[in-house]
Amino acid sequence: MSDPEHHNPWTTLDSRLVYENPWIAVREDQVLQPNGAPGIYGVVQFRNQAVGVLPVDEQGRIWLVGQYRYPLQRYSWEIPEGGGHFDESPEDAARRELREETGLTAGRLELISKSHLSNSVSDELGFIYRATDLEEGISEPEGSERLQVRRVEWPEAWAMLQDGTITDSMSVIALLHEAVRRGGINTKTNDHARQTARRDKPT
C-alpha cells in the first residue's frame, strides 16, 4: 500500500557522469530540492555488491581481519568482507572473500542482513552473512591487501565495538545481530557503565 507521505519530493532536471573507474561511477544531478530550490546532488554508483561474513567457530569465537584503510588513514578491525560482481551471487562472493582473507571455508552460511551502507551519497548494497561449521585452510589475500587475522572471544569482539575499535558499518551490523542472537544487548548495564564513566571523568 503506497503512502502519499513517501512519494519522491525531488525532481531531477539533468544528470551527467563526472568520474568513473572499474569500481565506481560518480554522477552529478541538477535537481529541484523538496522545498523547490534548485541544487546539485552527487551520487556514487558502485559497480559491485558488498559482502561481509561473520565467522563463528564451535566455541563461539569470532574471526576478525585487520587492515589499513586508505580512505580513513587508519588501521581497521573488521569482519572479512569485500566486493562481488553483479553476475556473481552474493553467497558465492561471500564464500570467496571468506576463503581469500582468512582461509576459512564455511559449511553453513546464513544471510543475516541486507543493508544500504551509505544511502545519502551512494547506492551501495551490502549482504552480510553468518558463517559456521568452519574449516581452516590457507588464505589468499589480494595483492593490495596486507591482512592480520585474529580469532577472539565474543566478549572481546563486543568490547571492540563498544569502545570504537570497530567502526566499519558491516562489522557493526553483524556484531549487533550476533549480540541479539546471544541473548540481547543489556542496555541497563551499558547505561550504568556510561554514567560511571561520566562521574569518574576529571573536570
UniProtKB/TrEMBL annotation:
<dbReference type="GO" id="GO:0016462">
    <property type="term" value="F:pyrophosphatase activity"/>
</dbReference>
<feature type="domain" description="Nudix hydrolase">
    <location>
        <begin position="46"/>
        <end position="174"/>
    </location>
</feature>
<dbReference type="Pfam" id="PF00293">
    <property type="entry name" value="NUDIX"/>
</dbReference>
<dbReference type="GO" id="GO:0019693">
    <property type="term" value="P:ribose phosphate metabolic process"/>
</dbReference>
<dbReference type="InterPro" id="IPR020084">
    <property type="entry name" value="NUDIX_hydrolase_CS"/>
</dbReference>
<comment type="similarity">
    <text>Belongs to the Nudix hydrolase family. NudK subfamily.</text>
</comment>
<dbReference type="InterPro" id="IPR000086">
    <property type="entry name" value="NUDIX_hydrolase_dom"/>
</dbReference>
<dbReference type="GO" id="GO:0006753">
    <property type="term" value="P:nucleoside phosphate metabolic process"/>
</dbReference>
<protein>
    <recommendedName>
        <fullName>GDP-mannose pyrophosphatase</fullName>
    </recommendedName>
</protein>
<dbReference type="InterPro" id="IPR020476">
    <property type="entry name" value="Nudix_hydrolase"/>
</dbReference>
<keyword id="KW-0378">Hydrolase</keyword>
<dbReference type="InterPro" id="IPR015797">
    <property type="entry name" value="NUDIX_hydrolase-like_dom_sf"/>
</dbReference>
